[in-house]
Amino acid sequence: MDMAASLIATTLSAGTPLALASLGLLINEKSGVVNLGAEGMMLMAAVIGFAVALHTGNQWAAFGAGAVTGALMAGALGLLVIWLNTNQYATGLALTLFGAGLSAFIGIDYVGKTLPNFQPWDIPGLSDLPFIGPALFRHHLMVYLTVLLALGLIWFFDRTRAGLVLRAVGESPESAHALGYPVRRIRLLALMCGGALVGVAGAYLSVIYTPLWVQGMTAGRGWIALALTTFATWRPARVLLGAYLFGGVTMLQFFFQGSGVQIPSQFLSMLPYIATIVVLALMSRNPLWIRINMPSSIGKPFTPGG
């Protein structure tokens, strides 16, 4: 029972950065913009967040720095793809390469340094319950905030005027523009808000989840987050479920090793990426389902009057 509770707890912790990044990318894609720069943004936010936490001792300042880093990089991406109409896919890939290289350079002096482990946020009356206490109610506050964020986005997209306008921009920017909405500014704002969440995900990795800085420490999580938005058919609740699913697959390698299962560690490390490929392959068998749920203008440039 203790091992099962530990597996659940580590799954929630491992799934949190994936959920944050995926929800940020979901906001981007709901507005019609594909952000392939998530991996580079997470790396930059990870090193900046780690540096801030190391020098200030304040993890929330680190999260703020990560959010600002992600928002600024997303803003730069937005200026290129929204106003200059550069190719969204090529520009996003360039941003990933830029972020990977610059983060490695900035992080040279931080390699080998560590931060103190965080103190879990115990929920009074619940954290001491047998099994479910250590499994569900002894986590960092960001774990709970991520769940609330997913629920908030469901309400935002379905129940608020701003959310409906954002969805309209992603479905038909021409119609939204004809109704007087500033499509390009809405897309830029959505891109920066989503980028801030991607940045928080990167900071969570280096400040809470690890907590240390290592070059390339995201290990493809930005790409998995991109796959998760498709896997979840652009729905926040499914994003959360998918993030915890992949987080659980990631933790299985340590669970198997601790249980003495004789499986090569290299194969176990491949599990999250194999799961990503398998899920996407299964989904691609029904392209109609993807087309029905995906924003109609995703990846397509928009020029007012063009």
UniProtKB/TrEMBL annotation:
It is a multi-pass membrane protein. Pfam families: BPD_transp_2 (PF02653). Its main location: membrane. One of its GO terms (cellular component) is plasma membrane. Keywords: Cell membrane, Membrane, Transmembrane, Transmembrane helix. It comes from the Bacteria. It is found in: Cell membrane. GO terms for molecular function: transmembrane transporter activity. The chain crosses the membrane at residues 6-26, 33-54, 60-84, 91-111, 131-157, 188-207, 213-232, 239-257, 263-283. This is ABC-type transport system, permease component. The gene is tsgC.
